[in-house]
What we know:
Layout: E1 10-17, H1 20-31, E2 34-37, E3 42-46, E4 49-56, E5 60-61, E6 64-65, E7 69-75, H2 79-88, E8 92-101, E9 104-110, E10 116-121, E11 137-144, H3 147-158, E12 161-164, E13 171-175, E14 178-185, E15 197-204, H4 207-216, E16 220-228, E17 231-237, E18 243-248, H5 254-257
Parallel strand pairs: 1-4, 7-10, 11-14, 15-18
Antiparallel strand pairs: 1-7, 2-3, 3-4, 5-6, 8-9, 9-10, 11-15, 12-13, 13-14, 16-17, 17-18
Amino acid sequence: xxxxxxxxxxxxxxxxxxxxxxxxxxxxxxxxxxxxxxxxxxxxxxxxxxxxxxxxxxxxxxxxxxxxxxxxxxxxxxxxxxxxxxxxxxxxxxxxxxxxxxxxxxxxxxxxxxxxxxxxxxxxxxxxxxxxxxxxxxxxxxxxxxxxxxxxxxxxxxxxxxxxxxxxxxxxxxxxxxxxxxxxxxxxxxxxxxxxxxxxxxxxxxxxxxxxxxxxxxxxxxxxxxxxxxxxxxxxxxxxxxxxxxxxxxxxxxxxxxxx
Length: 260
């Protein structure tokens, strides 16, 4: 698949954390990851194929402390141009466009509902390769209490179309007829006034077992394993507090397409 055909899709998932070694050990034991060590970033692999990036996180921006976090990266053709467009649509620029590695440019922004994400301009050698193996990214969901604002923003920003399930109100995002992400109302454990957040879902054989393992490895369980529309998943945090979900691999392929 060429770069141009991936423009507008989620093609990078990055963990920023102040303790990369502890994070790497946690995800190796939980998801089976191995690593290619670059100058500042570590590329996580499953079966020799890229699944994610682990990068160092500055502890503060000015006086504001920054937590460890997973961030989705949406591929764009020209990151500087897109950042200006996003700002005009109501997004807040957290980190302006900069070269983070040779030929790899990125900017970090916050959408109008409060969810942070990055826009990435890079060759395919920093994109996701593994998309079906256990331990790989199954999907990404926006957790928000502001669906209408989010749907409008991502449609204007990246051309995503939204399809809302009449029975469940679950929203699926599509680009060119292909699923790119999902949107659901923030779980009741999250205060209603909290900002929205993008949540990555990683494939595991059994989310209940994986959640218990995450807790044993120094993480914590935020939402215990449960089923929604036949999907079985749990929301957890790693030892530094970065939130993600573990999803039963058998249901990953149908997470968005079943709602067409």
